[in-house]
Design brief:
Elements lengths: L16 E3 L19 E3 L12 E6 L5 E4 H6 L3 E8 L14 E10 H8 L7 E6 L3 E3 L2 E3 L2 E6 H4 L5 E6 L2 E2 L9 E3 L12 E7 L6 H4 L10 H4 L6
Parallel strand pairs: 3-14
Antiparallel strand pairs: 1-2, 3-4, 5-6, 6-11, 7-10, 7-14, 8-9, 11-12, 11-13
């Protein structure tokens, strides 16, 4: 059971949880301080025992694997500076989001892990799952789930991130481990990552089929950043 850090029940929200400490006009630094970067979550913030946390990679792979946090730390680490931007709230698509920052992520290239497990020829998508659970738009979800085209997931800048700006990821930032997909909206960078499933079909999760900004709600620039939506 994933629980709130303040109670014995999963944290619940009717929409996004949001922490935004500074106005976007105050973000004058090249690298946004972690404390100044917005935090958004769809469901509750989970309690995670880092010693028991595992990342499972399975599906259309030759060698399914489970990796601990210490296992990931033993891999070669890569740093990537990238914009981190929120797509906005699909429950209120006309409200400007104005949430963006530029940070340095550090972690393991997803392409390196996929090279190790061997991705099957018929694979087309990568489904990512986070351990967070709670209520979104009056419906309970036991996990958060998104997907990416395999070609995007194999980009060398896509990371299984352990750090932001030289510091370990906090639980509010999606730690101990999160997916980071530069060039795509933050909704695709699954927090509290526990599963990567290589598939020949897209995820059927509401977060890939229902809760997304579409059509006239998106500008041309926004459409170019959808990535798996």
């Amino acid at each position: 059971m994933v629980k709130s850090s303040k109670s014995n029940q999963p944290m619940k929200y009717s929409g996004f949880g949001l922490i935004q400490n500074h106005d976007i006009n105050s973000l004058s630094r090249k690298i946004t301080r972690e404390a100044d970067l917005f935090k958004v979550w769809h469901l509750g913030i989970p309690d995670i025992n880092e010693r028991k946390w595992m990342l499972c990679i399975n599906g259309l792979v030759d060698r399914p694997i489970e990796l601990s946090l210490e296992d990931l730390k033993a891999f070669p680490q890569t740093s990537v500076m990238a914009f981190h931007e929120c797509a906005g709230n699909p429950l209120h698509p006309k409200v400007p989001q104005r949430r963006v920052g530029n940070v340095v992520w550090k972690g393991v290239r997803l392409a390196d892990l996929f090279s190790m497990v061997g991705v099957k020829e018929e694979a087309c998508f990568v489904i990512s799952k986070g351990i967070d659970q709670g209520i979104y738009n009056q419906k309970y979800y036991s996990e958060y789930e998104k997907d990416l085209p395999l070609a995007k997931a194999l980009n060398p800048n896509v990371l299984i991130a352990l750090e932001i700006n030289g510091e370990p990821l906090t639980v509010e930032r999606g730690g101990p481990v999160r997916l980071v997909v530069p060039g795509c909206y933050g909704t695709n960078s699954t927090k509290w990552l526990t599963h990567l499933i290589v598939s020949d079909a897209r995820s059927k999760s509401d977060f890939t089929t229902k809760y997304l900004l579409t059509g006239k709600q998106l500008t041309d620039n926004q459409k170019s950043h959808r990535c798996g939506l």
